[in-house]
Design a protein that fits this description.
By secondary structure, the chain is of the alpha+beta class. The chain is about 35% helix and about 25% strand. The chain has seven helices and eleven strands. The strands form two sheets. The protein has a six-stranded mixed β-sheet with strand order 5-4-3-2-1-6. Strands 10-9-8-7-11 form a five-stranded mixed β-sheet. Strand 8 and strand 9 form a beta hairpin. Helix 4 packs parallel to helix 5.
Length: about 250
């Protein structure tokens, strides 16, 4: 993202109606205003967050959302400072206000701008426009919070996949220096390297896992690991794959 162009966008200010929102919704933690515009040819949603402190709303940060990335500018200081954290962490609603909603959108028009951008994002990337489950008794803007989560989690997933591809490409390049593995390599790994170690090697792509302790293969399912011959080890295998068993270490391959 072009940070220079983003930071050049004038900082947001509150209207008289915005300031009166504290009287209408005294329990709010953040008031959010929004604008959608083109910046350097990129469709950009800007969400401005004002923190409610006693009887005053103070600018806290603004998040620039584009179709392939997002970034946040700290507004609590004059100098330009960027943050990469998700909005749910920056506002705290992930932990304390999930069932009541602590973000109040300034107007229906701005709410529609946010949801419209996020709807276009889903459409552009082939993401199903499923309904979001809103907790019983939650504020209506929980839908906005959930849709923002969905958008940011999708982009975080893309970045993680890209990093994995880059790391794997580097490993594959290094592995080209070596020839074919010796015929007895498997026995060496099992009988020498892992003689006194307990590991589970698993592949989600192949839906298989191998335990160096018992020497058996397991099926990888959504609800855990299942031994293809024996069932007695199912529980400790399942706990091991989630990293909850101190006796085993799970390694993805």
């Amino acid at each position: 993202m072009d940070k220079r162009s983003l930071s050049a966008v004038p900082r947001p200010s509150l209207t008289k109606k915005n300031k009166q929102m504290l009287l209408l919704v005294p329990h709010m933690s953040y008031l959010a205003t929004a604008d959608r515009r083109e910046i350097n040819g990129e469709d950009t949603l800007i969400i401005n967050f004002f923190h409610a402190e006693e009887k005053e709303l103070k600018p806290e940060f603004r998040t620039f959302c584009q179709m392939d990335d997002y970034i946040t500018q700290d507004l609590s200081m004059d100098k330009t400072k960027w943050k990469t954290g998700a909005i749910n962490h920056l506002t705290g609603y992930l932990y304390w206000y999930r069932n009541s909603g602590n973000i109040v959108i300034a107007s229906i028009r701005e709410r529609n701008k946010i949801l419209g951008f996020l709807r276009d994002f889903r459409k552009r990337n082939g993401i199903g426009d499923h309904e979001i489950d809103i907790p019983k008794g939650a504020a209506v803007d929980s839908e906005v919070e959930n849709r923002i989560d969905e958008y940011q989690n999708t982009i975080k997933g893309w970045k993680l996949q890209k990093r994995h591809r880059e790391e794997k490409a580097d490993i594959d390049l290094q592995m080209q220096k070596f020839g074919e593995l010796p015929a007895d390599y498997g026995h060496f790994v099992k009988d020498v390297v892992f003689e006194n170690e307990n590991y589970i090697f698993y592949s989600k792509a192949k839906a298989r896992a191998y335990c160096t302790k018992c020497g058996h293969e397991f099926e990888v399912r959504k609800d855990g690991l299942y031994h293809k011959k024996l069932l007695y080890g199912m529980m400790w295998m399942k706990s091991a794959i989630t990293g909850q068993c101190a006796a085993h270490t799970a390694i993805s391959i």
